[in-house]
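User: Teach me something about this protein's shape.
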Amino acid sequence: MPTVVLLGTLDTKGKEYDFLRERVLEHGVDVVLVDAGIMGEPLAAPDITREEVAGAAGADVRALAAAGDRGAAVETMAEGAAAVVSRLHAEGRLDGILGLGGSGNSALVTQAMRALPVGVPKLMVSTVASGDTRPYVGAVDIAMMYSVVDIAGVNRISAQIMTNAAGMIAGAVTSKVPDLGADRPLIGASMFGVTTPSVTTARERLEELGYEVLVFHATGTGGQSMEALARGGFLAGILDVTTTELADELVGGVLSAGPDRLEAAGELGLPQVVSLGALDMVNFGPRESVPERFADRNLYVHNPTITLMRTTPEECLALGREIGHKLSAATGPTALFIPLKGVSMIAVEGQVFHDPEADAALLQGLHETLGPAVEVHQLDLDVNDPAFATAMADRLHAMIEEDQ
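Assistant: First, the predicted structure itself:
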């Protein structure tokens, strides 16, 4: 029988979790209720106590309560909860996980959820789910469901929301993934709208060669997710066509994947083919959201919710140097493909972000820092040319075969 773990602070949300447990059990799945509360007595009987959760983090729950530092206590209990749910999953006692609460409980529960592998159903019913959920979701498959009303008692609205959530998690843990045929090696590929033709052609070529290609939208979390799967041992190689998230990290755009982007494959020794896709742009929201200091820059309204800003020669020089440093530190086979006629759909001659000076600066930065172990392929093509895409795919295939 599949098992759903319910994780939460039973000193404040015990009655709600009791209601939720009954709703899940009605679907014929088992439930393990884990208490991560700190202060008051639990208002529902847990299967795993707060003492066990705190102990998993090397702490004593009474000492946490006595210290009076709620932030530190929540952080410790989140660490213990992550250890507990990881153990339950390893023991075959967690097929899915469900939580509910406000910002504090959401932070605690989703931290534990992020410790679980991709593919394990994770659902968080939260008062903050209608806002920026990136801090809670991170780079894994957490579903956030807006609670509409606060998690404060069982009423006609909250009862419906919690009943829906119970049905969702029960359906998830009882569903079966269809057989997709023989397992094929997995490739991670990064894509943006302005590099879609390239990645599509490369993906189709790699599929012809016997791979399954996972495409990640380079939106910050996309790059993080791709590298998280690499670190999890899922990927045989990486086709990092679209490294645009580095530009957002450097300049202050909204789609940064953090300072460690473009390092996972190198640290792991995975074969990687890298290109410069969409390094011509930094991403912002609607036009009015672009910081005032960028008012005189080359701005392009991609759609009503996305405004793109052309990177300057100075920024491109810094990006080239950074990419050169990161690739030169790689411990595995690494190839850099440079499209001399444009790094995106709108950077080619005649388009709004065509800027030969910036492109030259990017190349200068690369050549200043690239080490001799990095293969460099300069092609007189733009990034979306089918010949460029096919060349990248074929080289990655050869590198993977040579590395075996």
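Now, about its shape. DSSP finds 14 helices and 14 strands in the chain. The chain has a mean pLDDT of 94. If you'd like, I can walk through any region in more detail.
User: That's plenty for now, thanks!
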